[in-house]
Write a structure and sequence with these properties.
It contains 8 helices and no strands. By secondary structure, the protein is mostly helical. Keywords: Membrane, Transmembrane, Transmembrane helix.
Length: 215
């Protein structure tokens, strides 16, 4: 029972924990220290955990390589295109959290069925962001406007679990909208952070929704 719980739900708790820390760093950067816990957990699972067999350990190694190369490619783009830096802390935030988020999502995509991934990642992230928006803006018209993107994601997740192609299209539309705001005007480090933690998960959910069972 413990092993089943560990394999099925722990990655989700870790993903939500990382996003919660990211939101908290907006209030105080000291909260970023909690990301050390996520790193320690990853090291434990990769090296010391007895709950993980050799096949899964190899899969985690493979995913880690993908994350490493993705981060290197991002660094090359950041260096080559002379991205405007508003704050070095935004860049540090990206390097602290994005590899952990990407690894967690890829792991879920490899291990679990399409509907399971969409439900857990889609509902969890959209509800977390919705709750944070409500707490920040309160129950007001402005708060409702701010919450609309997350409500749309909840609806998209619901649709995606029932209609594979329609759900994928809805996620992709959201991804295109985020991408448009990303490339409009000058690109800076703050845009990169937002795009990494909102845009990339949307693309991930779109591809997962399009995936056929058994792929």
């Amino acid at each position: 029972m413990k092993s089943l719980f560990f394999n099925k739900y722990f990655y989700l708790f870790e993903l939500l924990f990382i996003y919660a820390v990211l939101l908290a760093t907006g209030e105080n950067r000291v909260y970023g220290l909690f990301l050390i816990l996520a790193v320690v957990i990853e090291i434990y699972k990769d090296i010391f955990s007895k709950e993980i067999d050799e096949m899964e350990r190899y899969l985690r190694f493979k995913i880690s390589n993908v994350v490493l190369y993705s981060t290197v490619v991002f660094s090359i783009i950041l260096y080559s295109f002379n991205i405007k830096m508003l704050s070095v802390y935004n860049v540090l935030l990206f390097y602290m959290a994005f590899p952990l988020v990407l690894k967690s999502m890829l792991y879920a995509g490899y291990i679990f069925e399409r509907e399971t991934v969409i439900k857990r990642v889609g509902y969890s992230l959209s509800l977390l962001l919705l709750i944070f928006t409500i707490l920040s803006e309160g129950f007001s018209f402005a708060g409702l406007i701010e919450a609309m993107p997350w409500i749309y994601l909840i609806i998209s997740t619901f649709v995606a679990t029932r209609y594979r192609k329609i759900g994928s299209f809805m996620f992709f539309v959201a991804f295109v909208v985020v991408s448009y705001y990303f490339i409009r005007g000058s690109i800076n480090d703050m845009k990169i952070v937002v795009y990494s933690f909102i845009g990339i998960p949307l693309l991930f959910l779109s591809l997962q929704s399009l995936r056929k069972e058994g792929d």
